[in-house]
């Protein structure tokens, strides 16, 4: 009989691989920024938000907070550095007002994380209470990040076009949510399960919309904006 812990590890590794490629999905955006030597109309907000999201999940996965969550730490630790790389590129090719906003946002996140860490490690005792506190925060941040895919789906319905909602990105988001949901169910972890269940549902809705509006999409229409493309890339951030 297969050991559930072994199955969980295998599923978690698969989740790490899928999530890794999702973290890399904005690369075309930053290649364009590097090539043009300008951030143009792209915004740093989604990447700054994802940095905080990754930091929260790394904290959640630490043995002192939630034991046996190494694979949550590995992918979100990797994601943290990837997102910081994106922000660095954005910072280099931005003017001073945008740089100032980035610095202020990152400073706020550092202060917030410091407060959360102090409360978690010094104010709470035992992994159960720590997991509850940090886990709830992780779920709240993940739900807040769903504004991007919701904006995209609303746009698809309004325009009856899926041009700015790439099929493979939607499919990967769906699979990512499914894999991490399975991971959370093998050794029940509601704080990983809730956001990834919502993520898989979001991915499924995107796939249904794609199938619905594929035929009405005008593929030769160049009206897709940079913001729309950016939103789709930023919505791909893994949930665990």
TrEMBL record:
InterPro entries from the xrefs?
A: SWEET, SWEET_rpt
Q: How does it sit in the membrane?
A: Multi-pass membrane protein
Q: List residues traversing the bilayer.
A: 6-25, 46-65, 71-93, 102-126, 132-152, 164-186, 192-213
Q: Which PANTHER family match?
A: BIDIRECTIONAL SUGAR TRANSPORTER SWEET5, RAG1-ACTIVATING PROTEIN 1
> Record's family?
Belongs to the SWEET sugar transporter family.
Q: Write out the function statement from the record.
A: Mediates both low-affinity uptake and efflux of sugar across the membrane.
The entry's protein name is Bidirectional sugar transporter SWEET
Q: Which organism is it from?
A: Rehmannia glutinosa
Upper lineage is: Eukaryota, Viridiplantae, Streptophyta, Embryophyta, Tracheophyta
